[in-house]
Amino acid sequence: MGQPTIKDVAKLAGVSISTVSRVMNNSKPVSPEARKKVLDAIEKLDFKPNELARSLVMRKSNLVGVIVEDIGIEYMAQLIRGIEEIGRVYKYDILLSSSYGSEEALNNSIAFLSTKQVEGLVVITENLSDDTLLKLRETRIPFILLDRYQSFKTISSVKVDYAKEEYNLVKYLYDQGHEKVLFINQDEDNALNNAKLEGYKKACEENGKNTYILNTEGRSSDDGYKIGKETIKVCKENDISAVSCLDDEVAIGLIDYCTDNGIHVPKDLSVAGFGDSTIASIYRPNLTSVEIPYYDVGAIAIRALIKRIKKEEDILHEDWIMDCTIKQRESTL
């Protein structure tokens, strides 16, 4: 005997197929007597509905599509964890796809997930074109965009105020007794870099300090190492005792250079990073850094998306700004 069908349930319960459907989906009122008959029949037959068919009919799959640039990027993995774990609390599962920085792959992922009856989309990217944003809107599927560079000011999302957090970090270094702080930024014009530079300058201005700025070519530890010689030269010439780096990788590269050249961190020079990657707490000396609550960003994003799916109150009618924490460790005095 094959798997029982909704027709078998209706026959055993002595009711119509539509009544069985109403009980299963809790869509319309059913008398207590009829409901009991249906539930008894479902239990006796061990009836399991075809979820795919139900999702097509009800247009409800309890699936959310998540598109990431690369799951190998640490902060993206943390975002996904927050999305998946909180999504499950609301009985939603995720379908994951990666674009690997390719706009074509990103567009293909949007099209593919649309065919899988996902009820919502979360797009995690560091670069989104206007054309791709248009494709997202054309799907008419509710979506949340988590754009690290905050390129689209008209789209509300869960964000970090990088200017404020860099300001707080530099202020912390001043409060530690450092009179002069060098800021190492990346030589690239984007919202993320510009915000951190703005925060650094504001902290210097409000504390009556001079600004000292160097730019790296990139954001890797190699870039931090390469700029090490120039960094130490500027620090010695200006009696600078602390360096704030745009991210942890650059900071670790700079510390490596100091170690190779007999400069003790933090005794001779304090170094701080930004992002609090896993390596920040493992590396020696442990790196002082700004901890970004990526898990919480993902958790709030999926909660907001599910509310949009259910047409409930939109908690992202304006940006949700997350507060960060300075993790004080061995690399600063």
TrEMBL record:
Keywords, comma-separated and alphabetical: DNA-binding, Transcription, Transcription regulation
InterPro entries in the record: Cro/C1-type_HTH, HTH_LacI, LacI/GalR-like_sensor, Lambda_DNA-bd_dom_sf, Peripla_BP_I
GO MF entry, a single one: DNA-binding transcription factor activity
Domain HTH cro/C1-type: from-to ranges: 5-52
Family matches, as SMART domains: HTH_LACI
SUPFAM superfamilies referenced in this protein's UniProt entry, alphabetically: lambda repressor-like DNA-binding domains (SSF47413), Periplasmic binding protein-like I (SSF53822)
Protein source organism: Anaerococcus nagyae
Name used for this protein in its record: LacI family transcriptional regulator
PROSITE patterns reported for this sequence: HTH_CROC1, HTH_LACI_1, HTH_LACI_2
PANTHER family: HTH-TYPE TRANSCRIPTIONAL REGULATOR EBGR, LACI-RELATED TRANSCRIPTIONAL REPRESSOR
